[in-house]
Design goal:
The structure holds 2 protein chains of 2 kinds. By secondary structure, chain A is an all-alpha fold. Chain A is about 70% helix and about 0% strand. Chain A has 2 domains: about 60 residues, no CATH class; about 210 residues, MetI-like (MetI-like fold), CATH 1.10.3720. By secondary structure, chain B is an all-alpha fold. The chains are: A mainly alpha, B mainly alpha.
């Protein structure tokens, strides 16, 4: 570090003006190839959803072939797609809101205080968020069956909270860690209690963190398959993930319906997702970036 | 595990108990919601799961209510029989091996490809934000939708992958019906949907490395490889250790891809531990006790993983 570069030093190893044309072409070609791999399956899904059934079930590679919206009208009109979508939204929304409400104070406490039991709480948060469905699904299923909650939304919300609550707390700890402690200290000097500091000063600052945790809980619940498949037995209670697999069951495969429904799900999800992805990555890796 | 969470308050002399309480009551109160929720929603089912795993409960002998009739449970305590059955079965070794292969291959490819793309995207160039959006797309699509997309792409008869192979003069491959190619397929699908997160996270990590370090190294005559090896890799470590852990957990627990793409088949060849335990409990004659025991075995593996991770964190100086 003793070599302080003089003023007109070259600006880093990768400025555009210093890259040879050959390297530039290679760079763009690599990225274009990667982009094609990344986009192709989704693009093919959209194109397929616009084809009539008899074309879908041939080995045609034509990107566009007798385009039609028949699959969409059939999905919306003749299946329970809209019911399933509403079910998914209800379950995911309740899970997200409850998850954030329950875990916010804990995230703050483990970010700021060192108290007896701190390590146990951290351990608990780490371990429970690693729980795969296989560990809890049987006992929760049996308990819910005992309570008569099978095929009811509360059973799904409860099952999802087992993973989103610890995960939200963990994520929010990361976010609170990035809020300067001097703000807390200022609040305490002004006579606020720890709760007051949290509620009046830190929570407003942490809104983006809360939003990310809520969004993450939402998409986790939204895309969950195992609990939903096991718990929801009536087709009026299916979530989208369960409902869609009905289209391609053991005996029949309605690829047209499946692809149209997939597009209807994926497009709003992708738009929202692309808007918030930067915050999501920051949230998931928060605490890692400041070692 | 969870039961001792509340119990492990450091033993304090009785005279200090009041002082401890007045000093820490707000921290305890703030953590209370999560601790209580976890104890009720995770601790209790976990305890029940452990109990079930020590019995011979199946769909047949589990108590249930049909209409007005309450049928009592008739399952019995069988001790560690389920565990010895699992650990001595050929199934266990096979599933465990494939789960480890699946996790290691997927995470290695996620991190390798993600890092490569992040390094490319970290250069100033035209169209950077466009590439970024295109490359993030697989993560934006819900995983269950992706699994269905791949199932269609890889369909043996009219899947586009085989159609392209045939057009290029090769014969089609039974992607989802051949044990080996089914494994390749689930890995390909999972890599496709997992790379974007790694790419974005590592890109964030790259951008957090101070540029002066590279400039100083260049002035000192370091080659690009040396700069990568001695600046980029150590600079990324905080981010990479976190994302590798997350990636490992996610992949180890990756249920939708396998369940929806191959249903664990053909002949159980792509079944990982998680989907196997699920199938035990919810398909055919529901074997609740066996599935619960599989769950506990999986939990034991995860605890070992968490312990290793925590040790690594400690070596980095994280204080718990």
């Amino acid at each position: 570090m003793s070599h302080a570069a003089p003023a007109p030093a070259p600006a880093g190893g990768w400025s555009r003006d210093r890259r040879s044309p050959g390297k530039s072409v290679a760079l763009h070609l690599t990225l274009i190839a990667a982009s094609i791999v990344s986009v192709f399956p989704v693009a093919w899904l959209v194109l397929t959803s616009l084809k009539p059934r008899q074309v879908i079930e041939t080995a045609s590679v034509a990107p566009i072939d007798h385009p039609t919206l028949a699959n969409y009208t059939q999905v919306l009109g003749e299946t329970r797609f809209l019911t399933w979508a509403a079910n998914s939204v209800i379950v995911s929304l309740v899970t997200a809101v409850l998850g954030v409400l329950l875990s916010a104070t804990t995230g703050y406490a483990v970010s700021r205080f060192r108290f007896p039991g701190f390590r146990s709480v951290m351990w608990m948060l780490l371990i429970t968020q690693m729980f795969p469905v296989a560990i809890l699904i049987v006992p929760i299923y049996n308990l819910m069956a005992g309570l008569g909650l099978i095929n009811q939304f509360p059973s799904l919300v409860i099952a999802y909270l087992t993973s989103t609550v610890p995960f939200c707390a963990w994520m929010m700890k990361g976010y609170f860690d990035t809020v300067p402690v001097s703000i807390d200290e200022a609040g305490r000097v002004d006579g606020l209690t720890p709760f007051g500091t949290f509620w009046r000063l830190i929570l407003p600052l942490a809104k983006p963190g809360l939003a990310v945790a809520a969004f993450y809980s939402f998409i986790t619940a939204w895309a969950e398959v195992a609990y939903a498949t096991a718990f929801m037995t009536g087709d009026d209670k299916y979530t989208l993930a369960v409902g869609l697999s009905q289209f391609v069951g053991q005996h029949k495969a309605e690829w047209g319906l499946l692809t149209a429904a997939s597009v209807l799900i994926a497009i709003p999800a992708a738009v929202v997702f692309l808007l918030v992805q930067r915050h999501l990555v920051t949230g998931l890796t928060a605490g890692a970036t400041k070692a | 595990m969870t039961a001792d969470v509340v119990a492990t308050r450091r033993a304090a002399p009785r005279s200090g108990a009041r002082r401890l309480l007045s000093r820490h009551w707000y921290a305890w109160a703030m953590t209370a919601p999560v601790v209580i929720v976890t104890l009720v929603l995770v601790g209790y089912p976990l305890a029940r799961g452990i109990y079930l795993s020590l019995t011979d409960a199946t769909e047949g002998n589990m108590g249930r209510t049909i209409g007005m009739n309450v049928i009592p449970s008739t399952y019995e305590f069988v001790g560690l029989k389920n565990y010895t059955d699992i650990l001595t079965s050929a199934e266990f070794l096979g599933r465990l091996t494939w789960t480890v292969v699946w996790t290691v291959v997927c995470v290695a490819l996620h991190v390798g490809i993600g890092l490569g793309l992040a390094l490319l995207l970290n250069r100033p160039m035209r169209l950077r934000s466009l590439y970024r959006i295109l490359l993030v797309l697989p993560w934006a699509v819900p995983a269950f939708v992706s699994a269905f997309i791949w199932r269609y792409l890889l369909n043996g008869e009219f899947g586009v992958v085989n159609a392209m192979l045939r057009a290029a003069g090769f014969s089609g491959i039974a992607w989802l019906d051949d044990p080996f190619w089914a494994k390749v397929s689930v890995i390909a699908c999972n890599v496709w949907l997992g790379v974007p997160f790694m790419m974005l996270a590592l890109l964030g990590g790259l951008q957090a490395i101070p540029r002066e370090l590279y400039e100083a190294a260049e002035v000192d005559g370091a080659t690009p490889w040396q700069r990568f090896r001695h600046i980029t890799v150590p600079g990324l470590r905080p981010v990479s250790s976190t994302v590798v852990l997350l990636g490992t957990i996610w992949t180890f627990n990756q249920f939708p891809v396998i369940f929806l793409l191959t249903k664990g088949g053909p002949g159980g060849s792509t079944e990982i531990l998680v989907t196997y335990a699920y199938r035990q409990a919810f398909e055919g004659i529901r074997n609740y006790s066996g599935s619960a025991a599989w769950g506990m075995v999986i939990l034991a593996l995860l605890v070992v993983m968490a312990a290793v991770y925590r040790r690594a964190l400690r070596q980095q100086g994280e204080a718990w």
